[in-house]
Predict the structure.
Amino acid sequence: MRTTRLRLRHVAISLCLLSPCLAMEFSSSPVAPDTFSQQGKQLRADLERVYRSPKETAPSIWRDIDVSSTVAKYIPIGTSFDDADRILKAAGFKMAPRPPRPIERESIVKFPEALRFAISGELDLDQTFLVSRTSVIVILSPDSPGDPNAHVKEIHASIMTAYL
């Protein structure tokens, strides 16, 4: 009886020690979770650097700064939507609900069908009290709309300033 308990303890302890390894093995990506948070922090730092760069003119009412290539360094084409979502959240983006979104038949504004399956997020970079707000808007389009295991096909990201 005592040896059976000891064996069960050894099995339980072994499973507890192996569980992080097993969790990583069955993850959607071979990348460690710490890597996502590190990529997110680096992405945010790069976006802030681009925004604060003196060579870039500040966004105006008529123009925004395209930062798609900056985002693509951290979320390359072919990245799974789950991994892209983790990286953007780690960078501080507020993410819209995951697709697919229902079709709003009563809406005045009609969006392209492809946007129903895209993921999007917004990151506030700067806000002037009651005057303006500068944000990064990211839209990631899927390679196969409607597929729960979709991957990033297109990246559209820009820094925009809204004046109140």
Q: What stands out?
A: The first strand starts at residue 65 and ends at 66.
